[in-house]
Amino acid sequence: MPFEIEREFARLYGIPCWDVHWDCDTGLRLNFGVPHLDVQEPLAKEPRPGKRDLLRIYRQVWVHGDWKLWVDGHWKLTLRDIPPVRGSSSIRQILPGLARLDGQQLTGLEIDQHSAFTRFVFDLGAVLEVRRLDRGGQDDLWELLTPEDRTLTVRGNGTYSFDRRYVQKRSWRPIERV
Fold first, then answer.
1. Nearest to 129 by CA among 108, 104, 100
2. What is the distance between the alpha carbons of residues 144 and 151, in angstroms, rounded to a whole number?
3. In the chain, which ranges are E strands?
4. Residues with Cβ < 8 Å from 47, sequence gap 6 or more?
5. Pairing outcome for strands 74-78 and 67-71
6. Closest by Cα among 18, 34, 20, 169 to 87
7. With contact defined as beta carbons under 8 Å apart, do 143 and 72 qualify?
8. Under a CB-based contact definition with an 8 Å cutoff, are residues 65 and 35 in contact?
9. Between the CA of residue 103 and those of 31, 50, 51, 160, what are the distances in Å?
């Protein structure tokens, strides 16, 4: 595994995840570390005539951790006491699984250098496996946002980037043991 990936995850090991959340639009999201509030004030005092522009008239507030892990690929969560849960499972199956993952500490990470299949291992027995959406796909499997506003992104074609969060052109490198 590349040094950059090992280094960033070594900093994350032992920190409990929280606000583990999934929805069909944004995928699976896990926060780690100290919670922070982001507040966006309304963009205007008055709404535009005839428009329903909620961002212009209402304040938006988001809570996020020092670290955030976004999972975009197919995922499967294996726990000790319930059957495995997948992103394709019903919401009635997903919610109890994610509730059991909430609060667990990340202790290990394995990444296949060819397919980028990833296994996240947690201290209380949870294992989160992530695989690409389609064979040979170049879509992002997951990304880790760091406290320094850097993004570590892994793609299903066996490449990764570690760049500033809002950089326009990312530098993609192969995942291989160094």
1. 108
2. 6
3. 17-23, 27-32, 36-40, 60-64, 67-71, 74-78, 85-86, 106-111, 118-122, 127-131, 140-145, 150-155, 159-164, 173-174
4. 53, 56, 57
5. unpaired
6. 20
7. yes
8. yes
9. 10, 45, 42, 27
Integer-rounded Cα Rg, in Å, for the chain is 18
Segment 66-71 mean pLDDT: 97
- Residue with the two structure tokens 């005539």: 49
The residue among 107, 133, 104, 136 whose CA lies nearest residue 119 is 107
Tokens of 30: 């896990």
| H helix or E strand, kind and range, residue 10 | helix 3-12
pLDDT at 47 over 90: no
What are the boundaries of each domain within the chain? 3-32+67-174
pLDDT of residue 26: 84
Q: What is the pLDDT of residues 150-165, one digit of tens each?
A: 999 999 999 999 999 8
Q: Which of 106, 111, 116, 107 is nearest to 69 (CA)?
A: 106
Q: Exposed/middle/buried for 70, CB within 10 Å: 0-12, 13-18, 19+?
A: middle
Q: Nearest-CA neighbor of 69 among 154, 10, 160?
A: 154
Is the per-residue pLDDT at 178 higher than 60?
no
Render pLDDT for 11-21 as a digit per residue (tens, 0 to 9).
Answer: 999 999 999 99
